[in-house]
Write a structure and sequence with these properties.
398 residues; alpha+beta; Butyryl-CoA Dehydrogenase, subunit A, domain 3; four-stranded antiparallel sheet; three-stranded mixed sheet; 13 helices; globular
Length: 398
């Protein structure tokens, strides 16, 4: 298959690159590239910068206040932003709940949340997974019972990313406990509503971005029902496909491979450089091939999505991208040698003097933390085993 890149898209890439050189603060880029979790204040500030340029809603159509860019231009923009060290946008807002609200939400809901998402004034936590309902979300047990003009919610969500610094939670709950898929509704809840309890989950890298969320008779107004009652599963399916496509992590894979090449060029293997070791070089070359294959698979998916397709391209991208990210991380750790076993504190969150008084080269901090966190890449967004079953059913008609 051959793709001809439109010269206008190449010019667009140059425009984006020039904008990023001028507008991404150096200290913000340094923090983003460190390998540790982003800071919410950086994300908020960057979203406002993009919104002033009219670029924050990169995947939103013009009628929603977005850019109206083609899927290819969205790909180019994300690629350049990641390379420039720009903080990530709020994926939950822009790529998940935002498009659902703008497509099926009430006019009041669109007016309340659309501009706020675009300007970085509201951030979101995703209340989908439960202790006994992960990839099989239809088995969730959280209940929402209507009481007058409110829903009363009781339940327990887990692996809720960044909700500790969010403003709202969008969650799936059973409004009809007798039904399965048809009994699920999509609701919005204020994070600080009475009865909401957030318990942090400290991950293997000793960082905090994951949480458990408990709902104990939490009340949310009926106006925060997204779309129609009982259609939450339908909305969630399209939302999850977007999440899985994002999990291909093309820009992160690209940057991490460049980082791996840099480490291998500076680390020694006996008398020579590690990158010149035949065995290591051969494995590095295979990662290069895999990365190029992921790029073209992503572009193909973008072109097919533009033309309309019912195939689960998100599942396919998720499997290939997540597994490649883990392979690159393993080689980064190998290239670091003994320094890969050292626990480096996040210098942007810890005491500056203590964080700087660490052993090893300047590129060592953040590698191990990112590697350990990305062990979950093949699980979040739907376990890869489940994605392979979806692929088999759709592509192979099994």
């Amino acid at each position: 298959m051959h793709f001809d890149i439109d010269p206008a898209d190449l010019a667009f890439r140059k425009e984006v690159r020039a904008f990023l050189r001028e507008h991404v603060p150096a200290d913000m880029a340094e923090r983003t590239r460190s390998g540790f979790h982003f800071l919410r204040e950086d994300q908020r500030a960057w979203t406002k910068i993009l919104n002033q340029r009219g670029w924050s809603g990169q995947n939103w159509p013009l009628e929603w206040g977005g850019t109206g860019w083609s899927p290819v231009r969205q790909f180019i923009f994300e690629d350049e932003c990641f390379a420039a060290g720009a903080p990530p946008i709020d994926t939950s807002g822009f790529k998940m709940i935002g498009p659902i609200i703008m497509a099926v939400g009430s006019d009041e809901m669109k007016q309340q949340f659309g501009p706020a998402i675009l300007n970085g004034d509201v951030f979101w936590g995703q209340g989908f997974s439960e202790p006994n309902a992960g990839s099989d979300l239809a088995s969730l047990s959280t209940r929402a019972v209507r009481d007058g003009d409110e829903y009363v919610i009781n339940g327990h969500k887990i692996w809720t990313s960044y909700v500790e610094s969010a403003d709202f939670i969008f969650l799936l709950a059973k409004t009809d406990p007798e039904a399965r898929h048809r009994g699920i509704s999509l609701l919005l809840v204020e994070k600080d509503a009475p009865g909401v309890t957030i318990r942090p989950i400290i991950d293997i890298g000793e960082s905090h971005s994951l949480n458990e969320v408990f709902f104990d008779n939490v009340r949310t107004p009926c106006r925060y029902l997204v779309g129609e009652e009982g259609k939450g599963w339908t909305y969630a399916k399209s939302l999850l496909d977007l999440e899985r496509a994002f999990s291909a992590e093309w820009p992160r894979n690209k940057r991490n491979l460049e980082q791996l090449r840099n480490i291998a060029s500076r680390e020694r293997d006996g008398a020579g450089r590690l990158i010149d070791s035949p065995g290591f070089a051969a494995r590095l070359a295979q990662l290069e091939v895999d990365l190029q294959a992921l790029e073209w698979l992503t572009l193909r998916a973008l072109y097919e999505r533009k033309g309309g397709t019912d195939l689960p391209v998100g599942s396919l991208l998720k499997v290939r991208g997540s597994e490649l990210l883990q392979k690159i991380g393993e080689m980064q750790m190998e290239a670091l040698g003994d320094y890969g076993a050292y626990f480096y504190p996040d210098m942007h969150r810890e005491d500056g003097a203590a964080a700087l008084a660490v052993p090893g080269p300047e590129y060592a901090p953040g590698i191990a933390v990112d590697y350990m966190y990305r062990r979950a890449t093949t699980v979040y967004g739907g376990a890869n085993e489940i994605q392979r079953s979806i692929i088999a059913k759709s592509f192979l008609e099994l």
